């Protein structure tokens, strides 16, 4: 087993008084040094789900000193549990345990757990400490930065929530060993996204190290996660309120969201749909004259090396895509707003794609 | 009818980017000038209760330009409705109306409405604009400043909530004409509190103008509300995180809370219990040698002029008081923490009241 200190790295997210560290490396979960300094007081509530609990809950708890009051809550797994009712279960458990304003909530699990536990922390007694321990690659590179917490409402995803920063994020790369390989690939799609939108050098590094990443080589994982979080932190710092550059984080998401919606949530993983969506964005950028064939081929090869799908669903027509894309909330008035590529490592917001070029792409892009 | 501009005053609460104005005066509710500049976009949801709606909802809506999308939601009245379920009704209504992140929530009513609507705004799509239109004296001088929002949980008051600042607070002193006189007196208790803890000159002004206040003289009301909000704003600015000086706002509350708890919530109004509690704090301060007879007599006379009760409940023993006071969350370890007076206009935090002096006060303080 690799010892944490060998490949550990720490990234600081700078937000004034609300700045926090992201610690990344193998073995963090079982080592009190990484969690204990971030606890607000002596009361700790660990919230996790039924999939993650049997794998990592005991390891995390064993690392906590005996003189703390530690409670746990295990929720069902899955996006369907991301509801206000689940957050109410967390609040009920906190009150039943008599936890005060100096307690700390620890979210152990993927993006759903992180979003719910962060929201529970944001509103318990008007805000308590929160430590995030993301156990999926997607949540490690996405929800570690940005402070978005919340739950779904029957009428829309993430409709109820708050911005609430964690005290710390602990990313134990060992947890990826139990992640299903489709989910690992889906996480890699988001990693590749950061290279495509902002850092061509990182993209080149990813092409070179993709086999190591899929083989869960700890140093490669730590580097990929660190660079992804760091790029996201740069973008969020430039645009905390989501007016401009932060939209670039949606590369591939307009096409991808159309796939997810058409297919029904769950059949395609979010990262899989985003991966295909990024390839569609690259191909559209080529047709607009911004990328050349070699750029698109490089994008395709990188996604392929990550074992991501390279073709849209067989049963989805160009008109199916357009109908869903027209409802996207990024659009202004009647214009489709797309995130495209001016070059590899250089994304842009584009409102003026000629409709006939877009329609043709949606028709002739490969189907599975 | 007095025209707004005659006695209007505006207080700015300084919180950097989150600074906001409190406009105070008669007739504000029916005058678009005060509300419209604070709307974030063109979607407005007015939330009020069944008591206030028939009195003021139409007047407020009539002042809004026709080109806005205005919806309303009328909730039941009373502390029992201050629940997460009520806040969910607000979120459901917002989503049903298709309101986006640029909508504005207007809370028209007392403290319960303000706390719930503020919390709904804090968490709708991770935070939308909120304008507070408090219609009781207590909410005008208390919840206008401090940014506390939230709801009760079966296990405790205000357990779920957020800090969320309004875009503006509009205090129409005309709304006090429909306030039951017991509630007016209860609000005056909080006004007197600000004088007692921090401003002897304001206390003297209150003694001189109490009859005008009870007679709802607009200029006197505006001055009393402005000075109360301003004193609270000073205290909150010195101690945003409730570590120190903000505790002074609890003058009379430890005794008062014991009365409310013992009698069952609702039999004594909060302000009535706080009024009697402040007199108990003044009398205890005298026995500790900090106030003289004349100071206590002045305090009693001011409360009496505001038509507040001056004696504790007949069926409540000294031991009843102590049993409840020992549970107060301000206490550290086993010591009772009390807010007392070093002088009129000068409150202090006191951890070392000799138990026998406190017990004697609780036994021999007048009963009704």
TrEMBL record, chains A, B:
Superkingdom assignment: Bacteria
Gene3D superfamilies the UniProt entry points to: 3.40.50.1970, Dehydroquinate synthase-like - alpha domain
GO BP of this protein: amino acid biosynthetic process; aromatic amino acid family biosynthetic process; chorismate biosynthetic process
Cofactor note: Binds 1 divalent metal cation per subunit. Can use either Co(2+) or Zn(2+).
Cofactor list: NAD(+); Co(2+); Zn(2+)
Keywords linked to the UniProt accession: Amino-acid biosynthesis, Aromatic amino acid biosynthesis, Cobalt, Cytoplasm, Lyase, Metal-binding, NAD, Nucleotide-binding, Zinc
Ranges for domain 3-dehydroquinate synthase N-terminal: 73-185
InterPro entries: Dehydroquinate_synthase (IPR050071), DHQ_synth_AroB (IPR016037), DHQ_synth_fam (IPR030963), DHQS/DOIS_N (IPR030960), DHQS_C (IPR056179)
Domain 3-dehydroquinate synthase C-terminal, first and last residues per copy: 187-331
Binding site for Zn(2+): 190, 253, 270
Binding site for NAD(+): 77-82, 111-115, 135-136, 148, 157, 175-178
Pathway as given in its UniProt record: Metabolic intermediate biosynthesis; chorismate biosynthesis; chorismate from D-erythrose 4-phosphate and phosphoenolpyruvate: step 2/7
Reactions catalysed, as given in the entry: 7-phospho-2-dehydro-3-deoxy-D-arabino-heptonate = 3-dehydroquinate + phosphate
Major place of residence: cytoplasm
The keyword Thylakoid appears for this protein: no
Name of one Pfam family that matches: DHQS_C
Keyword hit for Amino-acid biosynthesis: yes
Subcellular location: Cytoplasm
Molecular function as annotated in GO: 3-dehydroquinate synthase activity; metal ion binding; nucleotide binding
Listed EC numbers: 4.2.3.4
GO cellular component terms, A-Z: cytoplasm
PANTHER family cross-referenced by the UniProt entry: 3-DEHYDROQUINATE SYNTHASE, 3-DEHYDROQUINATE SYNTHASE, CHLOROPLASTIC
Family designation: Belongs to the sugar phosphate cyclases superfamily. Dehydroquinate synthase family.
Function: Catalyzes the conversion of 3-deoxy-D-arabino-heptulosonate 7-phosphate (DAHP) to dehydroquinate (DHQ).
Name of protein: 3-dehydroquinate synthase
Annotated organism of origin: Halomonas beimenensis
